[in-house]
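Hey,

Quick one before I head out. I ran the complex with iron/sulfur cluster overnight. Inputs first:
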Amino acid sequence: MTQQKRPKKSVSFAIVGSGGAGALTAGSIVLEAAGQTGWYGMMNRSVGPQIRGGEAGALLRLANHPVDCMNAEFDLLIAIDWKNVERFSAEMPVRPGGTIIADPALGDVPEIVTRSGAEVKLVPIKDLAASVKGGRANMVAAGLAAQLIGLTEEALTEIVNARIGAKGEAAVANSLACARAGMQAAAELGLGNTLEIGDAYQQEQGRWLITGNEAVGLGAVRGGVRFAAGYPITPATEVLEWLAAALPEAGGTLVQAEDELASVNMILGASFGGRASITATSGPGLSLMIETLGLAVASEIPLVVVDVMRCGPSTGIATKSEQSDLNVAVNGFHGDAPHVVVAPISVADCLYTAQWSVYLAEAMQTPVILLSDQALGQSRVVMKRPANLSFVGKRKTYAGASADDRYLRYALTADGVSEMAIPGVTGGQHTADGLTHSVSGAPSSSGVDQQEQMDKRRRKIEDFDYGIHWGETFGEGKTVILTWGSLTAPAREAQRRLAEEGIAVKVVAPRLLAPFPHEGLEGALKDAERILVVEQSHAGQFRTYLRANTDLPGEARHFHRPGPNLIGAREITQQIKDWVNQ
Amino acid sequence: MNAPTLNAYKAKDYRSEMDPVWCPGCGDYHVLMSLTKSLAELGTPPEDIAVISGIGCSSRIPAYTNCYGFHGVHGRSLALATGLKVARPDLTVLAMSGDGDGFSIGGNHFLHACRRNIDITYVVMDNRVYGMTKGQPSPTTEPDWDSAMSPGGTGMSPFHPLVIALASGANFVAREFSGDIKSTTRTLVEAVNHPGFSFVEILSPCVTFRPDEREWKNTVHKAPVEPTDDPARAARRIMTDDGMNTGILYRGDRRPYHMQMDEPAAEAPEHLDHMFEI
Ligand SMILES: Cc1ncc(C[n+]2csc(CCOP(=O)(O)OP(=O)(O)O)c2C)c(N)n1
Ligand code: SF4
C-alpha cells in the first residue's frame, strides 16, 4: 500500500433524466469505473414512484478516500432532460459556483435549478447521441462526468464492456462512441481540472462495490441464514432478489410468498425446522408481520426481519427514505414481547449488523428486527474490503434423550435460553405454542407460568452480553450529535467540518435499539453538556424513544423532519454552530 | 433420521398424554383417532413428523399428538408448514385446522398452497362454524344459519373448498366424515403418501354450536365412483354432489414444488464475496 500525502478530495454530482432515460445506468458505470481507478465513492438514487417516465436521478459522490454519505451540495449537475425536475431538485442543490450542464435543445434551464448561482454550460447532449447510430444520451452524460472528474477512457471502456457486453458488440461500440463524444465535449467546456479527483489517496487492494441491501443479504448468509421467504416491496426487494440467487449456492433457498403474512410464517416454520431464516420487507409489510413476531417471541423461535424503511405511513413515498418505523419495531407488538431491534449505521455496517442479527436471533431464540432504510439499502458504495466476522449463529439445541428424564422445551434457565429440540430428534417432540405454556410447552392459564415464562423471555434478552457492538461513538466533546441509522454518516461529516472550525463534537449512534442499551449509551453521554438529537422522522420517534428510556444529561435539542429530503451534513453543522456560538 | 420400520408403531405411540379441551362428542376426537391410526400405518417415527395448526378448537390437535407440533397464529398453518417442508424435505408435514382458520382468515394461503403443490397434507376439520369463538358463521356455513353476529344468516354463498382446491392446483382431493374412522384413516394414509399438496376435508361436527350436525352420520354417503385423475371430471362431480359425498375424489400427477434445499453449507461460500470485488 502506498501512502501519498495528498489532500482529501471529493466531488459530488448528479445525473438526472426522466425514468428510463438511463441516468441510473450512467451513474452506476461512472461509479464502477471510479472504483476500478482506485477511488472510493457512493451513489444514491432518487426515483419517482413511476416505473417509467417519472424522474430518476443518480446522485454520486466520488473521492480519493472512503466516504459513507452524500454531500449536501453538488458540484455538478448533468441533465439528460428536465422532466419533473421540480419534484426532486431540492434533493440535489448545486452549490454556488458549481456547474450545470444542460442541452440547449431543452430550452431554458429551470430557475429552480439555477437559483443557487451555479454556472450553466450548454452541451448538445441529444445531438451528440444522435450522431452515433443507436447512441443514447445517458452515455454522453457518463462521458461528460468521466472527463470532468478525470476518469480515463480505458477505465470507462472496461466497465462498459463488463456491463453492456451481453447486449452485443454493436451496443458496446455505440455506448463507447457516445461516451467519447461526451468526454470530448467536456474537454471543450474550459472548466479545466477543477472537478478532477486526482490520484487515489490510498490505493488498496480488494475493494468492494456493494449496496446496503446486498450487504444485508451477504451478512445474513455469513451469519448462517439458509432459508428466506419474502414478498416484493420497495425498497427491500433487492435483499430478497440477492438472496434468491445466493442461497442455493449455500445449500439454501428462498420462497416467494403470497404475502407478508405468509413470508414471516414460512421463515418461522423453517426456523422451527432448524434453519436460520430471514425475510426482508418495508413498513407496510412489517405491520402485517407483527402478529407472527409475537408468536415467535412466545414460542421462542429465532428469525430475522429486515425492514428497509421508506416514507410512511401507508404507501407514503415508497422510493424514498425515512426513519419512521422505529415505533412499530420497538413497541408495535401486542402483549409484553421482549425482542431485539438493531440498526446498521452505514452501508458497510449493513453487512456486520445483518450478520450480528442472525447471531443474536440464534443465540437468544428470538425475533430480531433490523431497521435499514432506503438511503442505506439502495446506495451503492465503493468501500474497503470488509473483514469476515466470527459471528455465526449458533442455537442451543437438544441432543436427544440420554436418560429417561423428560425434555422440557421451555425449561427455566439462568440465562433464560432453553434447549430447542429440532424435528427429527428422538425424545424432543413438543408443540411450539403461542398459548401461554408451562416449562414443557403444555398450554397453561396459570399466573405462575405466565410470570415465569415472561421473566425468562425478558431475562434472555436483557441479560445478554451485547458487548461493544451496542453502538458506536466517534470523537470526543461535550457537544454530542446523537443519531441513528443512515444519519450517522452525515453526522460524522458534520463532525469533520466542525473540527475544521475548531468545534469538537462527539457523534453517538446506537446500533442496538431494543433492548435499550443503557450501559453503553448512558456511558457515552455521561459528560455531555449539549445533545443534538437528529433523525428523519416528523414525529420525532427517536427522541421519544430516548426520553422514554433514559434521562439525557445537559441540554437537549432536536433536529428532525420527515423524508424524502434527507438531513445532510451542512444542516447539522449549522445547527451545532448556531447553538455553540449562541 | 430414523429409517421407518413398517408396523413397528401403534396408534398410541402417536398420542401424547394431554387431554383434549374439546366438548364431549366433538367430531375432532375422531379425527385425532384417525390421525394416530394413519400415522401408525405409515410407520414413520413420531419425531420425523410435524403437525402444524392455526387457532381454533380443531387447531388444538398438534399437542395431542406425540409428534413435533406447532400451534401457530390464526390462519397461517399452511405458510408455516410450507416453510418447514421446504427447509426440511425429510420430514412428513401435516397442516391441520378448521374451516374458519383455513378458508376465512387463511383463505389466501389455501389458494397458494394448492398452486405451489408442496408435498404436504392439509386436513381441514370442517364443522361449518367458528367453534372456539362460540358459534359464528364460517365460510362454509349455510347462508340462512342464524347467529348473534349475523342475525338471520349471512346471505352469502358458502365456500366450496374441494372445488377451489381443485381449481387452484391441489394434487389430491378427498372428503371424509370424522365418524367413519376406518375410511378417514385410509384416506389420510393415501393423502400423506401422495406426492404434492393433498387436501382432505373432514366433516367434523361441532355438537355444541351446531347440534344439527349430529345428523351427519346419517346423511354422509360414499362417493359412488372411483377417484379420477381428470380435474374436469372431478370438478363436475364435486360441483354437483350434495356436499356429503365422501372418499378420494381426485388424484393428480402434477409435479410437486421443486425443493431446492440440499444439506445447507456450514459456511458462506467464498465466491459470494467475489461478486463484490473490483
Ligand atoms: C387474529 C385473530 N383473530 C381472531 C381470533 C379469534 N378466533 C379464534 S379461533 C377463531 C375461529 C375458529 O374457527 P375454526 O377455524 O372454524 O375452528 P373451530 O374452533 O370451529 O374448530 C377465531 C375467530 C384469533 N385467535 N386471532
Ligand atoms: S365448541 Fe364445537 S368444535 Fe369446539 S370443541 Fe366444542 S364441539 Fe368441538
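Residues 22-276 of chain B form a domain with the Rossmann fold fold (CATH 3.40.50.970).

Talk tomorrow,
K.
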